[in-house]
Design brief:
alpha/beta, Leucine-rich repeat, LRR (right-handed beta-alpha superhelix), 6-stranded parallel β-sheet, 22 strands, LRR_N_plant-typ
Amino acid sequence: MKLLLRLSIFFSLLFISLPSSYGCTSNDKNALLQIKKSLNNPHLLSSWNPRTDCCTSWTGVECTNSRVTALTISSGEISGQIPNQIGDLIDLRTLDFSYLTHLTGNIPRTITKLKNLDLLRLKQNNLSGPIPEYISELKNVTFLDLSFNQFTGPIPGSFSQMPKLQAIQINDNKLTGSVPNSFGSFVGNVPNLYLFNNKLSGKIPESLSKYDFNAVDLSGNGFIGDGSMFFGRNKTTVRVDLSRNMFQFDLSKVKFARSIVSLDLSKNRIFGKFPRELSKLRLEHFNVSYNRLCGKIPRGGLLQTFEPSAFSHNLCLCGTPLKAC
C-alpha cells in the first residue's frame, strides 16, 4: 500500500514538473507538417518528424500549454512561398521567417487568423508585391519587420489602425508614394519609424509633428519639404536620420530634444546658420554635410570631436573642425 502511495505521489510530481510545452496538439502538428510540405520538405526542418512531439524536438517551434506559440525559421535553404497553413497555428504570438533568400511571393491573407500575434518578422527574404492592407487586422502586433525584401507600391495607411504597434520596419524595399496622411492619427502608441532605402517621395504630413518618436529613419528616399516636425525641445527622441533626401528647412529655427544622441541630416537642402543648441547635445553620431548651411560652428560640447567630413560641402560653414572663419 505504501509503495502504491509513493508511486502515486511520484507520478503526480512528475506530471506537475513537466514543462507546459509538452505534447503539442494534433491540429498544430498537422498544420506544421503541411507547412513543411508546402516548403518542399527542406533539410532545415528535418527534425519535424511526425513520430515525435513538435513541442519538444522540432526546430524553431516553441509551445505554451501544448499550443504552438512561436515559429522561427531563419538562415536556411528554404524555397517557395509562405504557406497558407500558417493561419492554422491560431495561438501563434511570434512568427519569424527571416534570412530566407529563396522565400518568394507575398504575405497570405490567412495570416489574419493569427489574432494573438505579437511579433511579425519577415526580414531579408525575397518577398514581393504590395504590402497587404489586411496586415492591419493583426491588432495585437507590437513589432512589425518587413525589411530587406522586394515589396513595391505604397505604404499601407491602415498601419495607423494597429493599436499596439511600437515599431514599423519596412526599410530596404522598393516602396513608392508618400507617407500616408493617416500616420498623423495613430490609434495607439507612436511607433519607431524605419522607412529608409526605399523610393518614397513627397512631403511628410505636418500632423506627425505632434508625436514624440523614439527613433525615425527616412534616409535614402526622395522626400521634399520641411522635415523638422520630428524635432522639438520637449520631445524624448533619441535618433533621427533624414539623410539622402531633398528636405529643405532653416536649421537655425529648429529646437532639439536634449535626448538626441544620433543625428544625420546630410545630403539634403537644409539652410540657415548652425544652431548653438547642437553644442549642448551628447551626440554619438552626427552629420550635416552636403547641405546649404552657413556661419561659424559653435565651440563646446562634442561638435569638435567629429571629423571635418561631418560638416563638409556646405555653403559657408567655418570654424573647428573646418577652416577658421
